Amino acid sequence: MGGFISKILDYLNDTWGDTVLDSGFLPHFILRRVIRRELRRRLDEITPPFPQKVIDSVSARGNPALAAQLEDLASPKFTRMPGAFTPSSSWSRTLAYKMNFFETVRHQPIAIETDAANRQNYDVSTGIMENMLGPRIKYSCSYYSTGHETLEEAEIKMLDLYIERLDLRPGMRVLDVGCGWGAASLYFAEKIPDLEVVGFSNSRTQREYIEAKAKEMGLSNVRVITGNITNHEFDVGYFDRVLSVELFEHVKNYEGLMAKMSRALRTGGLLLVHHFCHRTTPYHYEDGWMARTFFTGGTMPSSDLLLYFQKDMTIKKHWWLNGYHYSKTLDHWLENTKTRKERMMPHLAETYGDDMAAVWHTRWKIFHLASSEMFKRDGGETWGVTHVLFEKPERRTVASIDLVSTDILRSGSERT
Questions:
Q1: Which segments of the protein form a coiled coil according to its record (predicted)?
Q2: Distance CA 63, CA 61 (A)
Q3: Cα–Cα distance, 271 to 242 (Å, whole number)
Q4: 275 domain-assigned
Q5: ω into residue 51 within 30 of 0, thus cis?
Q6: pTM score over 0.85
Q7: Residues 71 and 208 placed together within one structural domain of the fold
Q8: Do 141 and 267 have their domain in common?
Q9: Number of domains in the chain
Q10: How many other C-beta atoms are found inside a 10 Å radius of the C-beta of residue 240?
Q11: Residue-wise pLDDT tens digits, 16-70
């Protein structure tokens, strides 16, 4: 069976791979095996000693010196040294890679490929999301505290967790950046009527849905702004709280976005960031089916990524949510996508055209399947979700961590 899976995987990686996936021909049990093999490949790429593909990428991104050092550490001369594969030496290489990653993104725009992200995930027919997601249309990880929740219950449990961790209270002004279809914005406005809730989205479709839903629910304390996060500026010091749910995965310049959110907060205000992540190592989605179809320009952050960008905000608390929370969320979405196909098809045709509706139904199923497999790998402890709570200090007291990858690499080499 392993050889058969390898042949399928090789076939899917050539120019005909997308055609085979789009056909819906492969049964899910085969797809799961292929996905698990791909996940092993991904882990090999981000685990020291790094393959040549990663070293070439580091060099292409403008750091040939670090690339040469990574290549040297992966050479037979180094790997034959006593202690070459000790955790400290392996971790030294990981840190060198991470420091280069963090330094590189400081010089990029806040976000890239925003139009592609919109087309792939956010400016799609609301009818697709209403049938695929839960009742709150929460297009992000939900919370399964017992493991037996329905999707509706899990959505609400995560929304309540946001309220608890942000310490939302009547009279506050709350900004929901990247608000999606308004799951959090509408829930906050409904649950705490004295809040002023402002959602921010780059999608006209989402804004229209939230406005109509707020009117239907009789809510007058929620409004939506549309714009591009890369150039939009919020009123300085206006908000008491800011929430960002699964926005940072579409971001490159984290320092720039953190500064923007800090400016929007009053002194002492709180920012809660919810993002999915790899436990230790960030990477960009630069090739492969996921990058082409659903995540163009996207990034997989590491769980500690934002700890390196505290120039304008100070961390207060940091939580890890096991990947099974997202895996179960995605399994619920997959089941909805399969069982509600007939209800979804007109909306898929509206978004993608009659000739591509069935193809995109298949693609959404593969997306849920692949993502679920990723988040439950290794008992949910390799990929998961993190919540990071920041406070805007009275004055800037925290400097960003000095990212000098060569020093870290050198110190790691000396220990070995």
A1: none
A2: 6
A3: 5
A4: yes
A5: no
A6: no
A7: no
A8: yes
A9: 2
A10: 21
A11: 467 777 777 677 888 888 888 888 888 887 776 555 555 566 555 555 655 555 5
Same domain, 76 and 172: no
How would DSSP label each residue in 58-118?
Answer: HHHTT-HHHHHHHHHHTSHHHHTSTTTTSHHHHHHHHHHHHHHHHHHHTTS-SBS-HHHHI
What's the length of the chain? 416
One domain, residues 80 and 20: yes
Lowest mean pLDDT among 39-48, 106-115, 270-279: 106-115
Element (H, E) at 396: none
**What would the mean pLDDT of 167-187 be, rounded to a whole number?**
98
**193 and 278 both lie in a single domain:** yes
- For residue 351, give its domain range: 114-391
Q: Which residues contact 323 (CB under 8 A, 6 or more apart)?
A: 374, 375, 376, 377, 380, 381, 382, 383, 384, 385
Question: Is residue 399 domain-resident?
Answer: no
Q: Is residue 162 part of a domain?
A: yes
User: 75 and 125 share a domain?
Assistant: no
Residues 88 and 142 both lie in one domain = no
The span from the CA of 51 to the CA of 113, in Å, is: 27
30: CB partners within 8 A, 6+ apart:
5, 8
Indicate whether 251 belongs to any domain.
yes
